[in-house]
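Annex B. Sample input.
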Amino acid sequence: MTHIPEPFTLSLPTTWSPEQAWFVHALLEDLLEQIDAHYGTAVQHWLSELDAEEEAYRERQGDLFNDDFDDPISF
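Annex B, continued. Sample output.
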């Protein structure tokens, strides 16, 4: 999977106490740190490949707005 399917919604419980909300926040931060520590380099490499593919695609498409739009129209 290369992206989160659209639309992506997440419903949070409305009954959490502030302490419970803080715990979930801290848990997610810890999870992110662990993911980054384990997969960070691979994810960065993958993202740079995606950026390169996107740039190559744009170059193949050409600049659609590079033409001078002030050219006279011949009728």
